[in-house]
């Protein structure tokens, strides 16, 4: 697990087969979270924005890169990787070449 400033956590899935959607849903449910699924096409872009809630994202398939404009950091996530993004943190995103499917929950 990697911790960045502002309470951002990045958990990269260790080597080996990443979990499937059912396994990720169980991980989140065990934390008391109720995830929903979303997906995007290759190259889709989200411009910088923030949320009023703590966002938890797991990548199920594909990849996505989150940018943190305030620090200049970029976070590349692949299947099995998790990002915890506290409320108020400005971020943007670019979907990878294979598209992306994510599970997201809010704290």
Oligomer state equals: single chain
The total count of strands amounts to: 8
Q: What value does the average pLDDT take?
A: 95
Question: Number of DSSP helices?
Answer: 1
Following the backbone from N to C, one meets helices and strands in this order, namely EEHEEEEEE
The portion of residues assigned to helices is under 10%
Largest sheet, described in full?
A: 8 strands, antiparallel
Radius of gyration from the alpha-carbon trace, in angstroms = 13 Å
Strand content: over 45%
Characteristics:
107 residues; mainly beta; eight-stranded antiparallel β-sheet; 8 strands; 9% helix; globular
Mind explaining what this structure looks like?
The chain is mainly β. It has one helix and eight strands.
SSE topology sketch:
Elements: E1 2-3, E2 9-11, H1 21-30, E3 36-40, E4 45-49, E5 55-68, E6 73-78, E7 82-85, E8 91-106
Antiparallel strand pairs: 1-2, 2-7, 3-8, 4-8, 5-6, 5-7, 5-8
In short, what is this structure?
The chain is 9% helix and 51% strand.
